[in-house]
């Protein structure tokens, strides 16, 4: 009986690579291979690439890009820096219909076209946050902020923001602008690893 259980357990973790060879499954976390999430009205299977020969895309191979961002670049504002499993939890909540969460790709529009984006995200370029007039319009129309003589952040959404990765300054620039306008630091999450880390783990990407 024990041997039979071990056999089934072994079969559970088997997958197939691009050549059709049997291989172990690539897990997101212990016991979790994939989950279904909703992106733009369609169901997307969020998982790591199951081909064990898969490699990070050439676009992210270069090590000379950008400047290294601090782990907590917004001090004294307490903006939380998050990792991949945290990001996936926010994706799950957003996919389940939690409208109080918004996943934002802050890169300029050419970047998502080149490398794709993270499921459930929308693209709002960091340049729009730098421009106060446009930023206030976004805050009122999309982020749940009442923009008047005195801003009301009572219903402000939790923003989970990312760009290209630890060498990219687009998200730090956008977050710094939001903080300057008074957006609550507790309602902003900084996914520092960004697309570089997401891609390095072979996680699912989508068209934004």
Number of domains: 1
Number of helices: 7
State the strand order across the main sheet: 5-9-8-6-7
Tell the overall outline. Answer: globular
Structural summary, described in words:
The structure is a single chain. By secondary structure, the chain is of the alpha/beta class. 30% of the residues lie in helices and 18% in strands. The strands form three sheets. The chain has a five-stranded parallel sheet with strand order 5-9-8-6-7, sandwiched between helices. The protein starts with a helix and ends in an 8-residue tail after the last helix.
Write the layout of secondary structure elements.
Blueprint: H1 2-12, E1 14-16, E2 22-24, E3 34-39, E4 42-47, E5 80-82, H2 84-95, E6 101-105, H3 110-115, E7 122-123, H4 126-130, H5 132-141, E8 158-162, H6 170-180, E9 188-191, H7 194-200
Parallel strand pairs: 5-9, 6-7, 6-8, 8-9
Antiparallel strand pairs: 1-2, 3-4
Which tags fit this structure?
alpha/beta; 7 helices; Oxidized Rhodanese, domain 1; 208 residues
Q: What does this entry show, briefly?
A:
Helix content is 30%, strand content 18%. It is an alpha/beta fold.
């Amino acid at each position: 009986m024990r041997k039979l259980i071990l056999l089934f357990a072994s079969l559970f973790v088997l997958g197939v690579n691009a050549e059709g060879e049997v291989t172990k499954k690539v897990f997101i976390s212990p016991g979790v291979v994939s989950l279904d999430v909703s992106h733009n009205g369609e169901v997307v299977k969020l998982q790591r690439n199951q081909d064990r020969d898969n490699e990070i895309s050439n676009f992210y191979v270069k090590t000379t890009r950008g400047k290294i961002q601090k782990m907590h670049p917004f001090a004294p504002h307490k903006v939380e820096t998050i990792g991949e499993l945290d990001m996936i939890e926010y994706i799950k909540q957003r996919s389940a219909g939690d409208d109080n969460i918004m996943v934002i790709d802050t890169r300029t529009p050419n970047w998502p076209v080149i490398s794709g984006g993270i499921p459930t995200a929308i693209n709002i370029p960091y340049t729009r946050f730098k421009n106060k007039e446009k930023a206030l319009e976004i805050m009122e129309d999309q982020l749940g902020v009442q923009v008047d003589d005195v801003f009301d952040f009572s219903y402000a959404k939790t923003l989970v923001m990312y760009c290209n990765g630890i060498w990219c300054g687009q998200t730090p620039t956008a977050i710094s602008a939001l903080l300057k306008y008074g957006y609550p630091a507790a309602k902003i999450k900084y996914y520092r690893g960004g697309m570089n880390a997401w891609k390095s783990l072979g996680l699912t990407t989508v068209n934004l």
